[in-house]
Amino acid sequence: MPVNQAWLAQTIEEPLEPDLPIVDPHHHLWHREGDDYLADALLGDVRAGHNVVATVFVECRSMYHADGPEHLRPVGETKFVDRFAEENGGGLCAGIVGFADLTLSAPDLDEVLEAHRKASPKRFRGIRHACGWDASDAVRNSHTSPPRHLALDHGFQAGVARLPAFDMTFEAWLYHTQIAELTVLAHAVPEVTIVLDHFGGPLGIGPYQGRRDEIFSQWKTDIKALAACPNVVAKLGGINMPINGFRWHKAGKPPRSDDLVAATGAYYRHAIDCFGPDRCMFESNFPVDKVSCSYTVVWNTFKKIAGEYGAGEKAALFHDTAARVYRLS
User: Fold this and answer.
1) CA distance readout (Å), 53 to 50, 93, 140, 315
2) What is the C-alpha radius of gyration for the chain, rounded to an integer number of angstroms?
3) What is the pTM of this model?
4) Is the pLDDT reported for residue 176 higher than 90?
5) From CA 73, how far away is CA 61, in angstroms rounded?
6) How far apart, in whole angstroms, are the C-alpha atoms of residue 89 and residue 84?
7) Does CATH number 3.20.20.70 belong to domain 18-325?
8) pLDDT of residue 24
9) Where exactly are the structural domains of the chain?
10) Distance from CA of residue 210 to its chain's centroid?
11) For residues 233 and 279, is the Cβ–Cβ distance under 8 A?
C-alpha cells in the first residue's frame, strides 16, 4: 500500500527526548512500482529528529537475483543491502536479516546460509522465513506462501536448528492464532535465538473484526507462555498495519502519538511485563507502518509508553536489547 505523504504531513510532532540513542531493529528497503522505499526515504525518516544510531534491515522479497538456482536468489537482496550500508554509512543497515527456505534439505540450506554470510560478512545476522497463515481470504498469507502449521513441521524445525551453526537468529513473523505454535518451536530449538516480530501479529480484519477484547485476552495468555521460553525476544511495534484493524489509514488525519498510546499501549505493557525490558526492543516496521503514521510519531509513541520505566530499562528497550541480539558495535 503506497504511503500518502501529504496525508501524513497533517500530523506533525516534535521528537521527544531527541538525544536518546535508538537502534531501529526492523525496517525494509524495496523497489516496487509506485512504492519505492530506498535511500532518500529511509534517510528522511531516520534523520527527522530522533537519535537513530543504527538500524537493522529485515527481508522483504526485494532485489532478488533474477536467475540462477532458486534457493540462492534471495542472496541478491543481501548483496543489495550490504552495498547500501557501505555507501550510506551512519549505522544504516548495521544488521541484515535475510530469507532462506528453512524447509530445504541440509546441503542446499547450508549453501544458501553460507552464501548470505559471504555476501555480507560484517552485517548478516539472521533468517526470517515468515509463517503467517490464515484460512480467511480477507487475511493475506505471508509472502513466502507458507503451508498451515509450518512452525510445527519437523523439517522446518530442523532448518531452524541449523542457524546457530552459522551464528544466525530466527526471525518469526506470524499471526496471533499461531503464537502457540511458535512456543512449540521455541521449545524444540532452545539453542536458537528467536525474535518475535510485531507482537505476534494480532489481527483485526476479516473474521477478527469486532473481536478485539476476545483476541487480546487470548493473545495475553499466549504471549505469557511464549515469554517463558528464554530463547525468545520480542519486537514491540508493527501494530499499526491495516491488518491490525485500527484503520488509521482510513482516517481523515493521521493519528497523534497520544492516539496510538491509547489504542495500543496495553500490548506494549503486557509484552514488557512478560519478557522484561532486556528481552524487548521497540521497532518501526517502516515503511509498512508508514501508511498509518510518521516515523517521528511512532517513536514518540514508544517514548511515552516507556516513560514509566527507569533509565536502564529505557536504554534496553530503545537500544541495548537490539544491539545485543543483532551484535551491533
Assistant:
1) 9, 10, 33, 13
2) 18
3) 0.97
4) yes
5) 10
6) 8
7) no
8) 98
9) 18-325
10) 25
11) yes
